[in-house]
Amino acid sequence: MDIFDAIRANLLSPAVLFFVLGVIAAVSRSDLKFPEPLYAGLTIYLLVAIGFKGGVAVAEAGIGRVLVPAVTAMALGALIPLWTYPVLRFGGRLSAVDSAAIAAHYGSVSAVTFIAATNYLKSVDQPFESYATAFLAVMESPAILVGVVLGKLATRAAGDDSGASLRTAVHEAVFGRSIFLLVGSLIVGALCGEPGMKKVEPFFVTPFQGVLALFLLEMGIVAGRRLGELRKVGPFLLAFGIVVPVLNGALGVELGKLAGLSLGGATLLGVLSASASYIAAPAAIRMSLPDANPTLSLTASLAVTFPFNITVGIPLCLAIARRVYS
Amino acid sequence: MDIFDAIRANLLSPAVLFFVLGVIAAVSRSDLKFPEPLYAGLTIYLLVAIGFKGGVAVAEAGIGRVLVPAVTAMALGALIPLWTYPVLRFGGRLSAVDSAAIAAHYGSVSAVTFIAATNYLKSVDQPFESYATAFLAVMESPAILVGVVLGKLATRAAGDDSGASLRTAVHEAVFGRSIFLLVGSLIVGALCGEPGMKKVEPFFVTPFQGVLALFLLEMGIVAGRRLGELRKVGPFLLAFGIVVPVLNGALGVELGKLAGLSLGGATLLGVLSASASYIAAPAAIRMSLPDANPTLSLTASLAVTFPFNITVGIPLCLAIARRVYS
Amino acid sequence: MDIFDAIRANLLSPAVLFFVLGVIAAVSRSDLKFPEPLYAGLTIYLLVAIGFKGGVAVAEAGIGRVLVPAVTAMALGALIPLWTYPVLRFGGRLSAVDSAAIAAHYGSVSAVTFIAATNYLKSVDQPFESYATAFLAVMESPAILVGVVLGKLATRAAGDDSGASLRTAVHEAVFGRSIFLLVGSLIVGALCGEPGMKKVEPFFVTPFQGVLALFLLEMGIVAGRRLGELRKVGPFLLAFGIVVPVLNGALGVELGKLAGLSLGGATLLGVLSASASYIAAPAAIRMSLPDANPTLSLTASLAVTFPFNITVGIPLCLAIARRVYS
Amino acid sequence: MNTHPMKLVTVVCEAHAKEAVLRTIREVGAHGYTLFPVEGDGSQGLRTADIPEFTNLQIEVILKPEAAALLLERLGQEHFPRYAMVAFESDVRVLRPGKF
Amino acid sequence: MNTHPMKLVTVVCEAHAKEAVLRTIREVGAHGYTLFPVEGDGSQGLRTADIPEFTNLQIEVILKPEAAALLLERLGQEHFPRYAMVAFESDVRVLRPGKF
Amino acid sequence: MNTHPMKLVTVVCEAHAKEAVLRTIREVGAHGYTLFPVEGDGSQGLRTADIPEFTNLQIEVILKPEAAALLLERLGQEHFPRYAMVAFESDVRVLRPGKF
Ligand SMILES: Nc1ncnc2c1ncn2[C@@H]1O[C@H](COP(=O)(O)O)[C@@H](O)[C@H]1O
Ligand SMILES: Nc1ncnc2c1ncn2[C@@H]1O[C@H](COP(=O)(O)O)[C@@H](O)[C@H]1O
Ligand SMILES: Nc1ncnc2c1ncn2[C@@H]1O[C@H](COP(=O)(O)O)[C@@H](O)[C@H]1O
Ligand code: NA
Ligand code: NA
Ligand code: NA
Question: Which of chain A's termini has less CB crowding within 10 Å, N or C?
Fold first, then answer.
């Protein structure tokens, strides 16, 4: 299966097609809309399900085997803002605080992209380490902290409340609801193990792919609504939002191999690096770097990188991993 | 199985009993109530599930086999307002604009009634064309357009903005969220085919009947709340709301047979003709014929015809089809 | 399996661990929160599912076999306030109206505790009478009525509107939405029987344990939020909230044996006696004994007894039943 | 078109008070009301609107000045001592005075 | 900081009126609006907000006094006869008058 | 019963501003607030209230006139430049002035 076949297979999956349908709904100004509690409910379900399953897998693999790749993942998250910041600042001529904000978004991760990737791997029968959810859990925060520090250093003049801002960002990045749910469910899963899994499998595992498809319909609407802002971000950020994920994806795959992951696991680490945060990072950055322009970072991550990854980026990461591992 | 057995079997199904329970809740002024987002979520689930399944079936049958009966369904939808309008206008002595509004409601369709009918057919082991969902999709709009034109012609005096009204009705009837979801999911299903179905079956198919039962509990509450308005509609509309569906049901079955459908498929076309819209038609008519009295059309379709069809109309259509096909 | 093993097994189940996670979320002031409609939707699902299943079981067992234990359950509910009232009034030196209010809460029942208990019994392979849901249905109201009468008698001075208050309480206790849903679904289940069950099983039975686990996460949050009020209730109520459930649990088990229930059924009657209401009783008492301090009764039942039962009380009731039946 | 002065009374209260407050509203002669769930904080603690039984409600009523005064008085006497509640009055102008 | 007088127009209407009311709001020159679903009771019966098509909406607009007068007038003439609806005006003070 | 004049400050803002605005509200001495999610349109674009992180919130506070003035001033200086936000003040009358 070459790269184009892989992409085509992904594009014809229910999850991706429903995502596209959502984008069409938003663009054609249909009044289709998921009520907020439905969005919240689906998010809770997906995070709890993926966390629980990951936790059961961590318990089975043993914390020892998870540790090295997890630390690699964290390092990767902290590293990405360091190389993307100068690109944005000097390549894109963006302000220091905007560069720091965007760098934080791209170092952090998108849980939905990760979930879609596990789904995709399953559908092409590519095995992977189920405990990879742990990487998702540890990769959300480091980049946000690095990004906030970068932003604060760059705007030191007004920097008297730096400490407070950093604390706010740490609190948001570590105690925010999505990270809490994910880590909490991981721990619950690890404590329960297989016997617990048997009880909740018909709810958390069996219907999972269908729920994801429905959720991506909503995410298509959410992303599609932002497409109108594309002209505000300019050609540089547009290109950034596509090229950087590919580079980060390749980087993640390589580091995943170094850390001893299987082909599937390295693909997932690649996808995590490639993905950009559009929930946790915006919230934390809004509070700690309030002078950054949220339209830039959010539009790039939500309207460019997220759709790119869901459709093309994920199979691309697998193709890269296949090349690296062959 | 004669007609009374068929009705009894239907009445003792969980879906219909939960509907009755909902009516009782409304009538006895219990404070039971589904929150709006739950209603919206269930609606989205049901439309996506039925649409996706129908799409997979269309892909399998080939567009060729679906075309003739689908065009027949559209024609049927456009035709019903033409014969019901004079009945309402002259038989019922209703105003022109109210007659047009009510005719539009009865020519259009109720997705929930259709879904309940497929459920019923499955429970009595009556096979049917799964692609019949396509008929549901194409039958929603034609009657609304015909009804609006009838209403506009009848009130030509104030008719300077007729074009705009018609455009509004077309937009509402074609881009409204329910039709968008249904048609979109049909297309997604058709593009995915069986391989896609396998992935989402445990969510969109396996629990479907149970979800429908829960949803009908809510629909019972919604319909039951309208029962208080029955005295406002008068005996003519009450009789209309029961007799016309039976006639339309028989008409649908006959045309279904002519169009080459199986017994089950003809039953479904009968149910579609018999059903009256209470979501799409009210919204479109409210905007394009704002001088029509919404209490009349909505009470007839929601508080008379909908409960009648859910309980008696559906098995009746099957009985008619059995007679026609024997 | 001795009592400590039983408790440990319960503590390591997904449902209980998610409950604990919810408590942690509340205590650590995470912004994790289920939107109200999600809570409402999960409640409706759980009550309908348990009611329907119970109804199918009642139909199978025959009303004759259910009658004696159901009447026992009702009597038990009415009795508990009679013995707890003097304990609260004279042991705890609480005001008459507060004593009556709290006694009503402890005589009434918690549906979630009951559901968690059926779940626990299933997970330890302890068979029980499925029609026990009928006991849940009949035990909610009697204690509330007895409590209101006690409170009214004690405050006769202002007692001119006693009749109205009692009517309000009866209405709330009998037509409130949870009791309506439960009893209604029981009747629907009884009318449908096994054939109906087959249709809705994949929705109402298969994923049930997983849904319960998710719901207990939310209940953990709700209960955890009340922990802050513990210092307002004082040591007496704290002890009351733990000791009284154990005594009532033992009482329920004994009476269950007398009424001819199996070990599992007697355990469930014990759990029902041990549980305290935090939804129906507060609503009814708020309206009929408005001078009672809601913080006392609600904090005791929701922040003390509910968590105690979910974690320790349920396995304890089973252990008691094992001793009584051996 | 002429506008006519009227009073808007806004009540924020715990959900358990709903029936009692609506009854009082009807009794002082109001012809309608508007109601929605809200979160809130006050002297009786945070209400986070996550379970329907423990939520807060905001209730808005437009009525004649005398009816508004009566409503406030009765809220203050009958309901303030019993329920978590805030109520306030403000001046509004409506088009169809006969409707209220 | 100085505050500037402005008008707040509040509309409570059936969901079907949403597009029509928002169009009128734009046409009289408002630069924004705020909107949320509500339950309500009035001359046209109870609206219980359980299905999106049959719910009530509360729409709030801050605008200049002249625009507010025009909005009320057009609501009264064009929408009151057709939809279940209540509308009222009140006085508010804002910080940035140019925004409205 | 006597009613006492008080100010109602209403803030409509993006969800990300919630903590910051509530902190300011506490700091100017308010004893409570009421809050609910809303949809809205304004200079910073449509907010459709479909995902909690991107929604709008309406926050209502009753407080003493001096506190209200201070709140508006701080909102204008600290928050207006950073967040999508509208704020306005109006006159209300309450029963228990000590409560606010
Ligand atoms: N100063 C205030 N401004 C706005 N809303 C308030 C205020 N005080 C209380 N509330 C609302 O009224 C509810 C009940 O208030 P309380 O009885 O003080 O707990 C609170 O949960 C808030 O929603
Ligand atoms: N007096 C009132 N006070 C507050 N809201 C009202 C009042 N009358 C009507 N409403 C609201 O306006 C909606 C439509 O009113 P109506 O056209 O009278 O049915 C109702 O559903 C209520 O939400
Ligand atoms: N003129 C207005 N009337 C009522 N609400 C407004 C108005 N302008 C803005 N808003 C609300 O305030 C939010 C933020 O406004 P803005 O910063 O202008 O985008 C909007 O999403 C609306 O909910
Ligand atoms: Na990343
Ligand atoms: Na029809
Ligand atoms: Na009890």
Answer: C
- Contact call for residues D71 and D5 (beta carbons, < 8 A): no
Residue D92 lies in a domain: no
User: pLDDT value at position B166?
Assistant: 75
Q: Does E65 touch chain D if contact means CB atoms closer than 8 Å?
A: no
Whether B248 contacts chain A with CB within 8 A: no
pLDDT digits (tens, 9 = 90+) for E44-54: 888 886 788 89
Is this complex's ipTM strictly greater than 0.90? Answer: yes
Q: Is F34 in the pocket of ligand 3 (CB under 6 A)?
A: no
Radius of gyration, CA atoms only, chain D: 14
Contact by Cβ (8 Å): A84, A102: yes
Contacts D–F by Cβ distance under 8 A: 59
The SS3 call for residue A9 is helix
Q: Model's pTM, two decimal places?
A: 0.96
In a domain, D19, yes or no: yes
Q: How far is the CA of E47 from the centre of ligand 5 (A)?
A: 27
Of C4, C78, C63, give the one whose Cα is nearest residue C273. C78
Alpha carbons B242 and B225: distance in angstroms, whole number? 19
Interchain CB distance below 8 Å, C123 and A199: yes
Residue A175 contacts C where some CB pair is shorter than 8 Å = yes
Alpha helices in B124-176 (DSSP H): 133-154, 162-175
Q: Give the CA distances from residue F5 to residues C157, E81, F64, in Å, rounded to whole numbers and listed in that order.
A: 38, 37, 8
Closest partner residue to A17 (CB to CB) among B40, B45, B192 is: B192
Identify the closest residue of chain B to A18 by CA–CA distance: B188
Instruction: Look up the domain containing F72 and give its range.
Output: 4-40+48-83
**Could you please report the per-residue DSSP string of B193-250?**
HHHHHHHHHHHHTTTHHHHHHHHHHHHHHHHHHHGGGHHHHHHHHHHHHHHHHHHHHH
CATH of C34-325, one of 1.20.1530.20, 2.40.30.20, 3.30.70.270, 3.40.50.10420: 1.20.1530.20
Identify the CATH number of the domain in which residue E57 sits.
Answer: 3.30.70.120
Q: Which chains would you list as touching D if contact means 3+ CB atom pairs under 8 Å?
A: C, E, F
Q: Kindly report which listed range (A251-255, B254-258, C248-252, E94-98) carries the lowest average pLDDT score.
A: E94-98
Mutate to test the pocket of ligand 3, among F14, F60, F86, F88 (most ligand atoms within 8 A of CB): F86
